[in-house]
Predict the structure.
Amino acid sequence: MKKTIISIALAVTALITFQACKKEAATAGARVPSLPEENYRYDLMPSGGNTQFNPLGANTTINNDAATLGRVLFYETQLSINNRISCGTCHQQSKAFADGKKFSAGFEEAITKRNAPAILNPGTQNSYFWDMRESNLDLMVTRPIANHIEMGLESQEYMTTKIANLPYYTDLFTKAFGTSEVTAERIGQALGTFVKAMVTAQSKYDEGVGSGFANFTDQELTGKQLFTTTLPCAGCHGGENFTGWGTHVENIGLDRDYTDNGMPGTDWNTGRELDGWFKVPSLRNVSLTGPYMHDGRFNTLEEVVEFYNSGIQSHDQLAFALREGWNGGGGVFGGEGGTGDVQPLRMNLTTYEKGALVAFLKTLSDESILFDPKYSDPFVTK
Ligand code: HEC
Ligand code: HEC
């Protein structure tokens, strides 16, 4: 009998101690943002030396208070249903805002259907996602929050209530929008502003623009020549963002039968269902953002170059630029023609040329964004 009382007493004490610890741990372990006294300047462009390129995009202006709020929201795990996932989980600064994985795990360890792309210079683009399904960045940025795989907060009311209940947002919303009211629209605007401010233009390539690429090695120069003139690459990955036109999708012949059909729709000429058309991604920071393609099928740039050199598949919607007979002029767009017996381009590059292409692609990376504090996770555990 006595023994039982003692063990109950012990159990109760243990329980009380345990509860007390748990409570303390909850307050002691709180994640709160630690922000600089004065805002970082998100409106200033990096001076990489490339005067021909505005990485913000022509019509974008940045409000520093909104971008500061957006930075906190970008790393806010409370925006997920289990308080563990933030935008920064899949768009990591140390990986140039990609995540280094073929596919990414969301809040329930369910896996995204596509490879997480790097976020870079989004203000210069006007369509987002691999299938270009979204054109409004401020709306687009709240989609992952509601997405049933990514962050799982399906109710907008629940989202705004959760954010409004966190004391540090009162001040941040007031500074950004004049009042502390939390709305889904404001969350979208702030996240959109921060994301637009994720600019990158300080690569070896940018430094070389002013000097006619005097800073390039012979191999990088050969790669540049191949990329821009000899081969069709720049026909699609063109311009100073290496992303071609703002809205450009292509079938590059990754597969004869695509498991992921890409952009939905029908061909304007033939009326056939589109198949295998994906967004032409920017190649900036590409050496930092593997694995590659919409499904992360290639781990290295060498594998990508070998694909273009010898692995393009026959597909009746294959881009003309990647068909045999491409002569360097016009006809980049695919999908309009073809009878199903399409001859894919074989580039027959030498080992040196393949290495040169990779060397050139590496000059497009700007490592400064990996360390820039204005894009870093502001949360500390108190
Ligand atoms: C679980 C991983 C995951 C999380 C969390 C996540 N994303 Fe993404 N993100 C992706 C994937 C995967 C894609 C590509 C989806 C597609 O193309 O269908 C993507 C695409 C994007 C793009 C489009 C980039 C482009 O150039 O087309 C932006 C911008 C973006 N995410 C921003 C965000 C923001 C802001 C958040 C937080 C609210 C967020 N993401 C949370 C995985 C994630
Ligand atoms: C007809 C247009 C077109 C041409 C020409 C083209 N590309 Fe691409 N490129 C694309 C598209 C579209 C994708 C994405 C395809 C996908 O994921 O299904 C892509 C993807 C890539 C990627 C992976 C990027 C990432 O972040 O996953 C690299 C690297 C690349 N291309 C390099 C090149 C090089 C080098 C050349 C020249 C040898 C070239 N491309 C020619 C349209 C093109």
Remarks:
- Residues 231-233, 235-237, 250, 252, 254, 278, 280-281, 283, 286, 289, 292-294, 301, 304-305, 308, 319, 321-322, 332, 357 surround heme C (ligand 2) (CB under 6 Å).
- The CA atoms of residues 69 and 172 lie 6 Å apart.
